[in-house]
């Protein structure tokens, strides 16, 4: 039975949307790991603070978390307590246009994300923007997670690998 779930994947794969839906269907609390990482003015928590905050969250017996944060504590703090990893392994041609669309909409609406932070169209054009990051970083997610499926330290995890939006919708619809 899934009670401690982590949803991972590249930017634009739908991690937050899928995690919210899983949480609603299974009646579990949902937390975006971005809200744990980002402070006001886009200040990063850093590995030590992130690990401390995440450690408090995962002491609960039931949760759905979304986000990668693999190198700053997720693997050591979150994954040992998880029972399921939902890997949204969607193609770059699916994810990057989603990031562009979401960034434009958030920029126009001035949508507040975490700790008062907002995306802007001006920020979207910078070389370090989420749009460019989504393009450049996409291949690393396949490499990272493919190597972990067979990791003996993670043998307790059930892996759900979903490769296209139809598969995601289909799988989520089976949850109750």
Protein model, in words:
The protein has a domain at 4-91 and 139-173: 3-Layer(aba) Sandwich (Rossmann fold), CATH 3.40.50.300. The model has no long low-confidence stretch (mean pLDDT 93). It is globular, with a radius of gyration of 16 Å. 47% of the residues lie in helices and 15% in strands. It has a five-stranded parallel sheet. A two-stranded antiparallel sheet has the order 3-4. It is of the alpha/beta class. A hairpin with a 3-residue loop joins strand 3 and strand 4.
Briefly characterize the structure:
The protein is of the alpha/beta class and 176 residues long.
List the helices and strands and how they pair.
Layout: E1 4-8, H1 15-26, E2 30-32, H2 33-37, E3 38-39, E4 43-44, H3 47-57, E5 63-66, H4 74-78, E6 84-88, H5 92-109, H6 121-124, H7 130-148, E7 158-162, H8 165-173
Parallel strand pairs: 1-5, 1-6, 2-5, 6-7
Antiparallel strand pairs: 3-4
The dominant shape is globular
What is the fold-level CATH name, i.e. the topology of the domain at 4-91 and 139-173? Rossmann fold
The CATH H-level superfamily of the domain at 4-91 and 139-173 is: P-loop containing nucleotide triphosphate hydrolases
The main sheet comes to: 5 strands, parallel
Could you name the key traits of this structure?
176 residues, alpha/beta, Rossmann fold, five-stranded parallel sheet, two-stranded antiparallel sheet
């Amino acid at each position: 039975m899934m009670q401690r779930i982590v949803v991972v994947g590249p930017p634009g794969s739908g991690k937050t949307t899928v995690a919210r839906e899983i949480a609603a269907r299974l009646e579990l609390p949902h937390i975006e790991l971005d809200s744990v990482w980002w402070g006001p003015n886009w200040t990063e928590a850093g590995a030590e603070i992130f690990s401390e905050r995440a450690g408090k969250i995962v002491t609960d017996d039931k949760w759905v978390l979304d986000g990668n944060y693999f190198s700053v504590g997720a693997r050591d703090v979150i994954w040992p307590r998880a029972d399921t990893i939902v890997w949204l392994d969607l193609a770059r041609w699916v994810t990057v246009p989603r990031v562009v669309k979401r960034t434009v909409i958030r920029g126009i609406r001035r949508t507040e994300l975490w700790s008062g932070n907002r995306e802007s169209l001006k920020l979207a054009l910078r070389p370090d923007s989420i749009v460019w990051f989504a393009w450049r970083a996409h291949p690393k997610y396949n490499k990272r997670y493919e190597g972990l499926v067979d990791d003996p330290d993670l043998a307790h995890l059930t892996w759900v690998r979903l490769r296209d939006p139809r598969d995601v919708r289909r799988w989520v619809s089976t949850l109750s």
